Amino acid sequence: MSIPENLVIVGGGLAGFSMAQELRKRGFGGAITIVDPEGLPYDRPPLSKEYLDGRQPADKLPFSDESWFTENNVTLVTDTVTAIDPDTLEVSLASGTTLPADEVVLATGGHARSLPIPGGDLPGLRYLRTKADADALREVLVPGKHLAIIGAGLIGAEVASTAVHAGAEVTLIDPVPIPGVAGMGETIALHLHKLHEAHGVHTLVAQTTAFAERDGKFVVEVDGGPDEGGTEVVADAVLVAIGIIPDIHLARDMGLDMDRGVLVDESQRTSHPKVYAIGDIARLRHADGTLGVRHEHWESATHSGQTAAAALLGQDLPVHPAPWMWTDRYGLHVEAVGTMREEGELVVRYRDGVPAIAVMLAGDGHVLGAAAIDGGNAIRAIRRMIDRGIIPDREKLADPTVDLKKLAR
Amino acid sequence: MAEPIKVGAAGDIEDEEALIVPADTAGWDDDIAVFFSDGKYYALNDTCSHEDASLGDGWIEGDEVECPIHSAKFSLCTGAALCLPASHPVRTHKVEIRNDEIWLYVGVPADGQEG
To answer: What is the CATH number of the domain that holds A355?
Structure first.
């Protein structure tokens, strides 16, 4: 293989920026161009938390300031890619210009999913994906305003916490009684979900069936609305937070292999030998043809960019630790590692009668995953157990007086 | 700032643990975390350069510390930010063991560092 001279990264989110950073760290000397309609790459997790509530100023959102791009000879083009020629790899931009490339990285991320229900396309409905979305949402997070949030997943739960703290009235609607079980296990997920009501958020276990506008307000009909035995919520604003749809149209137009995501091998390479896909859009196809899940978490995005950088340079692929995520709500910092989806035995440590750490053990005692509230080092200890195949002593694992870091040695 | 301050005795800090010297005690604009890992001592400004979190409470392994909140990693030797979400280094301070006592040179970069 030859190392490219001209690399175009389509998308300046975490994955795209991480790849550019990693390429320079690894000594790549070719030209790097990042194309993104939003310009300077910035971090998205604060958009539902500290940036949304105003604690974090806008100038702290970018990963680096413009001087980094100059110093590292990375060209930032504020534009939208409209097409990539699969034969020449020429990249066409909305402005009408084109960029030459001898390898291309797709890091296009996704956009917020809308609800396919009557009124689901109302222009006033809000979504949260970009800085501009957060800026607009912040205006309704004030006393006297009522925000209805559809979806009590990570984004919905974080915004509910931020909004009620800012003095707004909040109704959080989700058809699932305990959201987050797949990511955090039932014990931690249930405890966290109960915090919504404890902090004054109204929670509604219901299916949203229609949106409408009435007298300058939004009406959210749930379970069919009042005429069909359901009810309605009247709010000043509605946030739809039910996940993302990966932006894969460029890959589709290029004829790349797809299956609810752009299929990549373990080096993030797509079915086109000179095109990589990283971040939210990428889905691993194993050597035997079976498909992995499309990861949408922060750290997996940065890892995928690092892997693609190594692959592009023909270097050994980095070995990444077990997948990890965090979420913040009501002043609590929650982390999870590994997987909590698989059937296993849940070992829970309590702190003052409240679940603090939940660890999922496989039948043979191996650690599958864990979730913790304000227990970052516990999660890092569990991560080490997973990565090194350490089987912890079952009784010590459950004993809150035993330091997990010592168990991980 | 050349006068070192005594912050403890050797053995006060367990392996892969840290001791926090409050800003007031250090006479510095941030708390200072003094780390002990793999038989060596290090000191860094305690506050993560990404967000308000204590590196002394972080995950210490080898010559790195990982922020307990968002997992930004820093070199204990140089203070360099090793991965996102941190982009900026944290300041190092020189630590010396004399007569089994831990002495911290507040504001003096660790050997070989420009601070």
So the answer is: 3.30.390.30
Which chain B positions have a beta carbon within 8 Å of A64's beta carbon? 87
Disruptive mutation site among A61, A377, A403, A409 for chain B (greatest number of B CBs within 10 Å):
A377
How far apart (Å, rounded) are the C-alpha atoms in residues B74 and B21?
19
Domain that holds residue A194: 131-240
Integer distance in angstroms from the first to the last C-alpha of chain A?
41
Q: Please name the helix (run of DSSP H) or strand (run of DSSP E) that holds residue B95, with its range, or none.
A: strand B92-98
Q: How many independent structural domains does chain A possess?
A: 3
| Cross-chain CB nearest to B66 (options A68, A380, A405) | A380
- pLDDT tens, N- to C-terminus, chain A (409 residues): 688 999 999 999 999 999 999 999 999 999 999 999 999 999 999 999 999 999 999 999 999 999 999 999 999 999 999 999 999 999 999 999 999 999 999 999 999 999 999 999 999 999 999 999 999 999 999 999 999 999 999 999 999 999 999 999 999 999 999 999 999 999 999 999 999 999 999 999 999 999 999 999 999 999 999 999 999 999 999 999 999 999 999 999 999 999 999 999 999 999 999 999 999 999 999 999 999 989 899 999 999 999 999 999 999 999 999 999 999 999 999 999 999 988 899 999 999 999 999 999 999 999 999 999 999 999 999 999 999 999 999 999 999 999 999 999 8
Cβ(A364)–Cβ(A382) under 8 Å?
no
Residues of A with CB under 8 A from a CB of B: 14, 17-18, 21, 43, 45, 50, 56, 63-64, 68, 299, 302, 324, 326, 333, 376-377, 380-381, 405
State in Å, rounded, how far the first CA of chain B is from the last one.
Answer: 13
Residue A321 CB contacts under 8 Å (≥ 6 apart), including other chains? A383, A386, A387
A184 with A270, same domain?
Answer: no
Q: What is the ipTM of this complex?
A: 0.88
Instruction: List the one residue out of A150, A172, A148 whose CA is nearest residue A235.
Output: A148
Q: Is A63–B83 a contact, with Cβ atoms under 8 angstroms apart?
A: no
Q: Do A405 and B16 touch (CB under 8 A)?
A: yes
Enumerate domains of chain B plus CATH numbers. Answer: 5-105 (2.102.10.10)
Nearest Cα neighbor of A316 from A387, A267, A263, A270 is A267
0.90 surpassed by pTM: yes
- Cβ atoms of A227 and A235 closer than 8 Å: no
Looking at the structure, do residues A351 and A399 belong to the same domain, yes or no?
yes
